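Action item from last week, closing it out:
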Amino acid sequence: MRSNGRMPGLAPSQLQAAKETASYSGGAHLLIFHGREKSEEDMITADVVPYFRLRWLDRTLVKLIPHQIDDLFEAINSILCEELEWTETVRPRDLSCCLLLPECAFSAAPTVRHIWTAATEAGIERIKLAARASERFGNLHWLPRKNSARGWIDTDGRIFDHRGALHGIAPFPWSWKFSYQMVDGFHYDVTSRDSRIFKISGADGSRHPALASGHINIDPHGHVRP
C-alpha cells in the first residue's frame, strides 16, 4: 500500500484499509517504514498489533532507491526470511495456541507472562526466543483437569476452555490475533478448577464476576461476552 503523503509509512487514516488488506490476504504481515511522528507511529502500533503482525522498517532503506536497488532487495529479503521464521514458529496454528489466550485475564507464571509481548518482536534471535517462551508456557499451563482432557489453567486456578460451543459474531478485526483468523463465535469458557467464586479482568480493565452458572465467556482480546 502506498503512502498518501510525502513521508514514508502509513498515515492513521489508512489503517482500516491496511487491516482489511491484511485480512483479505490471509493474515499478511504489515511492513511499514518509520518516518512519521512518534505519536502517529504509536497510534498505528496500538491499532494494528492486537490483530496483525507488524514490522517496522528503517526509513534509511528508502534512500537505497534507485541507485542501490540490489542492496534494498537484499535487506528486504533478509527481513522476509525472518518473518517466515515467525510464521512457522510463533504464529498460532490452531485455536489451542497459548497466544490466543487473553493476556489481560489469564494469570500466567512470572517466567512466561511476557509471551504476548515477545511474539510481537522482530529479529531472528528474538523470534526464536518467542517460540521457546510459548513452549515453556505450555509446560506450565497446559494441565490436566478433573475427569477431563488437559486445558489452559492459570496460576489462580481458572480454566480457560477453548472447546466450548461457538456463539456470537465478533466485529472486524476482533476475529484476528497475531495474523491468525479465528472462527466466528470463538471464545473461552472460564471456570474455576476448584468451583470457587472468581473474577477476571476484561480488556477495559474492569473486573467481571462469574455468572450464576459459575463461568464467564471471554474472547481472545479480553472482551467479556454475556
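Closing note: The first strand starts at residue 30 and ends at 33.
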